[in-house]
Amino acid sequence: MPTPAPPLAVATAGLGDVLQLFRTEPTLTRADVMALTGLSRSTVNQRLDALLAAALVVPSGEGAPTGGRPASRFAFNSERGVLLVADIGATGMRTALCNLRGEVRQEHEQSLDVATGPDIVLSVVDEAFRALLAEAGRAAADVHGIGIDVPGPVDFDRGQVVSPPIMSGWDRYDIRAWFAGRYDCPVLVDKDVNAMAVGEHRSLYPEVRQLLMVKVGTGVGAGMIIDGEVFRGADGAAGDIGHIQLTVDDTDNEPVCRCGNTGCVEAYAGGWALVRDLNAAGRPVSTVQEALALIRTGDVTAVRLARRAGRILGHAIADAVSLLNPGVVVIGGQLAQIEEQLFAGIREMVYRRSLPLATRKLSIAATALGPRSGLVGMALLLADSIFAAHRVEGLIARRD
């Protein structure tokens, strides 16, 4: 039996609250649910019978004897349906079919230019979703939820991208409505770095209450876990570290950023800026991956620019560390692949500029999930949203 927690208030322990227990424990008996909620046996029986009838909970063998017959055990039915997730980047995307726990079962990866616009991109996403469903022998009716993350600022409540620097045609586009005629399920839209933060946090650092995820790819962004939950700010704009403006000593003219301002962190240290500076230095590269390949060869100019990018990123991260005091800073995105050249500058600036108390226990690490962190995190965010306690009764009514 799981360790008893303080009983939930009887008035609030509805179907959704009981289902949450089954989502967090492998199996439970009726007695377990009574102990964890403080509900009476008759009320637990009522809640459990409703969840069994809706196939959200299923029998799962017998429990240990309690002086009489073995207690029946039950488990969350993670195979009742599927979730579809798309992690969209500037130049590529990953799509996945997941079970209802948010565990990835099948995934695809392909190149994609997000600047071609929402209609083209979402059509490609839907084609990938249909291929995943066909491979799994599932139908559109089996889809309980869709999760989309994008490389731009997102109004989370409305599910809309707002004034994205690199996503032409996406401003306030109704992503949810695009999928409405194709799937009868909720659609969750979030910023890619928020999803990455959740993926790293839940998979690698579940005990850490404050975590900062920094993505350094074509652009630069950040996601924050505060008190164990994603922090999006009042309007979903929290974490836009790439557009903090800095004064850099070795630069006479501040570079123009894709957002239209000058001197942004991203305009100095983003992947696109690295490509720009390498070309200006006579090193012809056309993509971020080509720039990284040149850095790995040890080219003196490329390595110098990478280390400079690390120090500039470290400057911005140091400010965030002083403000948020995270326990872990995770660096992801394409530039995390050049850890040796990038991280030295980041660590140098963070430990030089941040308060000693804020860095005393700080860990700065490369992503452990690599390019899958956004996909993994978006699936978990979607599962949590679909099965939020206040939504479970509506889910049962809709699926009956």
Count of separate DSSP helical elements: 14
CATH class of the largest domain: Alpha Beta
> CATH architecture of the largest domain, please?
2-Layer Sandwich
What fraction, in percent, of the residue positions are helical?
A: 25-40%
Q: What structural keywords apply?
A:
400 residues; alpha/beta; Arc Repressor Mutant, subunit A; Nucleotidyltransferase, domain 5; five-stranded mixed β-sheet; 14 helices; 15 strands; 20% strand; ROK_cs; WH-like_DNA-bd_sf; WH_DNA-bd_sf; ROK family protein
Description:
This protein is an alpha/beta fold. It has 3 domains: 15-76, Arc Repressor Mutant, subunit A, CATH 1.10.10; 82-195 and 375-399, ATPase, nucleotide binding domain (Nucleotidyltransferase, domain 5); 206-368, 2-Layer Sandwich (Nucleotidyltransferase, domain 5). It is built from 14 helices and 15 strands. It has a 5-stranded mixed beta sheet, with helices on both faces. Strands 13-12-11-14-15 form a 5-stranded mixed beta sheet, sandwiched between helices. It is globular. The two termini are 31 Å apart.
What's this entry about, in short?
This protein has 400 residues and is α/β, with parallel strands linked by helices. It has 14 helices and 15 strands.
SSE blueprint and pairings:
Blueprint (H helix, E strand, L loop, with lengths): L14 H10 L3 E2 H8 L3 H13 L3 E9 L4 E7 L5 E7 L3 E7 L5 E8 L6 H19 L6 E8 L3 E2 L4 E2 L13 H6 L6 E5 H13 L6 E6 L3 E7 L2 E3 L33 H5 L1 H10 L7 H9 L3 H25 L3 E5 L6 H15 L2 H4 L3 E4 L6 H14 L5 H8 L1
Parallel strand pairs: 4-7, 7-10, 11-14, 14-15
Antiparallel strand pairs: 1-3, 2-3, 4-5, 5-6, 8-9, 11-12, 12-13
Helix pairs in contact: 2-3, 6-13, 9-10, 10-11
Family: Belongs to the ROK (NagC/XylR) family.
Protein name: ROK family protein
InterPro entries: ATPase_NBD (IPR043129), ROK (IPR000600), ROK_cs (IPR049874), WH-like_DNA-bd_sf (IPR036388), WH_DNA-bd_sf (IPR036390)
